[in-house]
Design a protein that fits this description.
The structure is a single chain. The protein is α+β, with helices and mostly antiparallel strands and 148 residues long. It has 2 domains: 61 residues, Double Stranded RNA Binding Domain; 73 residues, 2-Layer Sandwich (Ribosomal Protein S5, domain 2), CATH 3.30.230.10. It has 3 helices and 8 strands. The strands form 2 sheets. It has a 4-stranded antiparallel sheet, with helices on both faces. It has a 4-stranded mixed sheet with strand order 5-6-8-7. Strand 1 and strand 2 form a beta hairpin. Helix 2 packs parallel to helix 3. The longest helix is centred in the middle third of the chain and has 14 residues.
Length: 148
Amino acid sequence: MAKKVEKQFEEVLLEVRKVTRVTTWWRQMAFRATMLVWNWKWKIGIGAAKWWDVLSAIKKATHEAYKDVVDVTITENGSVPYARATKYKSALIKLLPASAGTWLKAWSSVRRVLELAGYKNILSKIVGTNNKLNNAKAAIIALSTFKK
């Protein structure tokens, strides 16, 4: 009888998008999957991958997300230690500390990243783009730059 292995990380699908590359003779379709992995000990990672079918794209994106796991810093009231603005490609993410009882004031994929990372009270602002992948990557980069 095989022994069941406990997974250390949880996985969640952030987005699946159909992408098309137009060539001279035809249109070549693929799927881009974006995955988030996290554990309950303040680690989170993101991965994105393209493939011809959805399940393989999800599997590749999950594999990429495990390579990109970072530690995050959370204060006692579930916020960030200090204000931080981070730019990734065209996405600019501003994260601001908030007092207890403020809850999460975030939008789109940034909210999902902050929830999974374990933040409870935080203010955020997205400037520049509404691309889910770039916003999520910018949020994870901002969270990983805080000092312990």
